[in-house]
Amino acid sequence: MRVLHFYRTFYPASYGGIEQVIYQICHGCEPRGIFAEVLTLGSRERVGDTVFDTIPVHYAKTQFRIGGAEISASAIGRFRELAGKADLLHYHFPWPMADVAHLLASAGKPSVLTYHSDIVRQIRLYRIYRPLMNVFLGRMDRIVATSPNYLQTSPVLAQYRDKTSVIPIGLDEANYPGPDAGRLAYWRARLAAPFFLFVGMLRYYKGLHILLDALKGSAANVVIVGAGPIEKELREHARREGLGNVTFLGAIPDEDKVALLTLCYGVVFPSHLRAEAFGVSLLEGAMFGKPMISSEIGTGTSHVNVGGVTGLVVPPGDSAALRAALARLLDEPDLAQQMGRNARARYLELFRAEQMCASYAALYGAVLR
Q1: Which residues pair with 90 in a beta bridge?
Q2: Which of 145, 172, 177, 223 is deepest in the core (most CB within 10 A)?
Q3: CATH architecture entry for 177-350
Q4: Between 280-287 and 333-350, two packed helices, what is the crossing angle to 10 degrees?
Q5: d(CA 150, CA 165)
Q6: What is the rounded (10 degree) CA torsion for 319, 270, 183, 27?
Q7: Rounded distance, CA 245 to CA 127, Å?
Q8: What was the pLDDT predicted at 107?
Q9: CB neighbours (10 Å) of residue 175?
Q10: Tell me, which fold does domain 2-172+352-368 have in CATH?
């Protein structure tokens, strides 16, 4: 079986949660006889074909943006060509470019869509886009929600419940490098312990401004890993408040991320808007057996982090509650360790890539039949 994934970004040009999910699906389905390719958009310098790991990746040039969404007219022709060779098309929502490509150039191929998030921020553009979106979603053979929480709370998915399945995101530990002794020693010497870790793209919905407010008057140390459009703003926020207990590291290699996940006391994930549909880096914390702190936003974050079991869940946007959660885990190390063990057990039970890929392979087969 040949599957074409279509999404606006992918490795190695961009490393984010959805890119990670696409990679895990492609990589994990290959032993099951499912061979995937990815069509994505790139800059002027990154156009053409390449291979990432064993996955063929095709880049079309981004020509302009509307409301933050990358658009490429040239991608339509490339999509038509690649779709013609595929047995099944796999889209990743939201990205309006995929809607257009499917309606113009999919040639009626069987289609699956992973619904990663509602559209939260671009409300005015969403009103214009909604008719196209409804036609697009209506033509999908199957839709996948990444958690039962999101399926239950999304007003859009409610319209398509009869053809929506839940397949939680999974991670493969084998894709992560083992902790390097040199890297562990380097970070032990550089960072004040114990520390909480945030990993992710620095975007508006990550709630990092709330985390910075929570650190005022707190004994907790926090390390922030990642880059993004609000990085400068966040650094200025921390400088303005005189926060000596937060460290920004920017984007770092996987070897360093693994070292920090190994060393950290816990993972803090303050996303406060529904644009955060799951939280892959939160799941990484569970995989490494760390207690977690997250916000209740009605999405997959509370499927990964079960309040009182694998960590603490606080109201969204509540810096005081977040400060109290950090303090509680520091003050109760036995509780923190037990929550970390529970998080690891929950990862093994529900969130391994093998389980995710087996579910997608079964879904692909059912759609083709």
Answers
A1: 5, 112
A2: 145
A3: 3-Layer(aba) Sandwich (3.40)
A4: 110
A5: 11
A6: 180
A7: 42
A8: 84
A9: 14
A10: Rossmann fold (3.40.50)
Percent of the chain at pLDDT > 90 equals: 82
Asked if residues 306 and 263 have their Cβ atoms less than 8 Å apart, the reply is no
Q: What is d(CA 311, CA 93) in angstroms, rounded to the nearest whole number? A: 29
**pLDDT tens digits, 278-288:** 999 999 999 99
Q: What angle do CA 140, 353, 338 make, to 5 degrees?
A: 125
Between CA 341 and CA 309 the distance in angstroms is 10
Looking at residues 165-184, what average pLDDT do you find?
A: 94
End-to-end CA distance of the chain: 12
Q: Would you state the structure tokens that stand for residue 273, as one six-digit string? A: 């808007």
Longest dimension (CA), the chain: 61
What is the signed CA dihedral for 288, 194, 301, 250, rounded to 10 degrees? -90
Domain spans of the chain, in order of start = 2-172+352-368, 177-350
pTM of the model: 0.89
Contact 7, 40 (CB under 8 A): yes
**pLDDT reading at 53 higher than 60:** yes
Q: What is the per-residue pLDDT for 338?
A: 98
To 5 degrees, how large is the angle CA 339–CA 249–CA 68? Answer: 95
